[in-house]
Design goal:
- The protein is built from ten helices and eight strands.
- The chain has an eight-stranded mixed sheet with strand order 3-2-1-4-5-6-7-8, with helices on both faces.
- The protein starts with 13 loop residues before the first strand and ends in a 14-residue tail after the last helix.
- The N terminus is likely disordered.
- Belongs to the short-chain dehydrogenases/reductases (SDR) family.
- Pfam families: adh_short (PF00106).
């Protein structure tokens, strides 16, 4: 079912991008379309805090792709619901005949210090980021498993969106950091479980100017004053890596997390065992404390939490 009328690294592939009405998601959708993909542009059209809904953002991006000569369809359902996630996959298959790549990107912020964080704000942010990754991934995985069991070739890709907040923590973003850390764990599990069906799963931790970051990190995210200077925080800088990870060219790369910022791509190496001590028997609390203190002194200093005083 390869489309020979279009060229590019993703020619003939069908790609779903969630949260694609603005920011990073919009940049990803446009970049995939420019590389020949047929794109399902999903966006609920909610506000920065997740309130409300509008069909406009998804429709506008789909129309922009079509106006540029690409192929796209808008999808406005809430992918943090089973119904919305199921319809996302159904839209791809019924409209374009297949699904090859899922890019999970939807999210919003409700920042508060832990002592002020309301339970509703915790639930809402974890829901959109973590559940909003899990459900589209689950329905896409079921589709690809069925394809593999029917002896049809599967070269599927999933690109999840974590964050530096999920890798290092971020002051005032306990809900967001926890959800983004959960996405890393989900990525690792999905990569292991879905590899047998021809599905590769990776995650990115991007740094770019979006509605979510341009207020929280205003100075860092500002565009340069000089018109010809490289705009390191432009969301379009992240999309080339996402497009490659979503293409057949990324064969063999799975279960990885990449930081992407400006012109830099970094493979994150995650938790690895550091200094260790084994008594060969049960420790007393005092012994355990003495051993732990010595091991901490021997270990590498952790990366600083975003927003920490004197830190990132």
């Amino acid at each position: 079912m390869t489309d020979t009328t279009r060229t590019g690294i993703c020619a003939g592939r069908v790609v779903v991008v969630t949260g694609a009405g603005r920011g990073l998601g919009r940049a990803h959708a446009l970049a995939f379309a420019a590389e020949g993909a047929k794109v399902v542009v999903n966006d609920l059209g909610a506000g920065l805090d997740g309130a409300g809904a509008s069909a406009g953002p998804a429709r506008d991006v789909a129309e922009e792709i079509v106006a540029a000569g690409g192929v796209a369809v808008a999808h406005g359902a809430d992918v943090a619901t089973a119904e919305g996630a199921a319809s996302l996959v159904t839209t791809a298959v019924e409209t374009f005949g297949r699904l090859d790549t899922l890019v999970n990107n939807a999210g919003f912020l409700r920042d508060r210090m832990l002592v002020n964080l309301e339970e509703d704000d915790w639930d809402a942010v974890v829901r959109v980021h973590l559940k909003g990754h899990f459900l589209p991934l689950q329905y896409a995985a079921r589709y690809w498993r069925a394809e593999a069991k029917a002896d049809r070739e599967v070269a599927a890709r999933v690109v999840n969106t974590s964050s530096g907040a999920g890798l290092l923590g971020s002051v005032g973003q306990g809900n967001y950091a926890a959800a983004k850390a959960g996405i890393v764990g989900l990525t690792l599990v999905a990569a292991e479980e879905m590899g047998r069906y021809g599905v590769l799963v990776n995650a990115i931790a991007p740094a770019a100017r979006t509605r979510m970051t341009e207020r929280t990190f205003a100075a860092t995210m500002a565009a340069p004053d000089e018109g010809d200077a490289f705009d390191a925080m432009a969301p379009e800088n992240v999309s080339p890596l996402v497009v490659w990870l979503g293409s057949a060219a990324s064969a063999g790369v799975t279960g990885r997390v990449f930081e992407a910022e400006g012109g830099r791509i970094t493979v994150m190496e995650g938790w690895r065992p550091g200094p260790s001590a084994d008594k060969g028997a049960r420790w007393t609390p005092s012994e355990a404390g003495e051993a732990a203190s010595k091991l901490v002194a021997e270990s590498a200093t952790p990366g600083e939490v975003y927003g920490a005083r004197g830190g990132v």
